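Weekly puzzle thread! Below is a chain. First person to post its structure in token form gets bragging rights.
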Amino acid sequence: MKSICVLVTLGLTLAPGVSARELPELVSECEACHGPGGVSSEQDVPTLAGKSVIYLREMLDQFYNYERHCETTTYRHGDRARTPMSMCNVANGLSEDEKQALAEHFANAAVPPAATD
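Winning reply:
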């Protein structure tokens, strides 16, 4: 209940069917490649933070349907670093509600300012 209150206070909502307990696990899975907060430090891995819900959802659906190239790569951060994976496999392990919840989460994530020289 406390997690739901925090999410509501922050103005974030969960897609129906995704509990406040499940969302952090799903986010952690994404952050294993896309970096903390969905901000990537890798040239070949895009930043998710701040992209629109529609864009993020469309990308997940394209991976789910194998409409985007699904190169095998490895997790970059956390306990599973160097474990082989592909975005098509990841997307196919998500329910519709989970895809929506992740899209909403990262769309609302803070994007750090661009570095200036």
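Puzzle host: Confirmed. Bonus trivia for everyone else. The radius of gyration is 14 Å.
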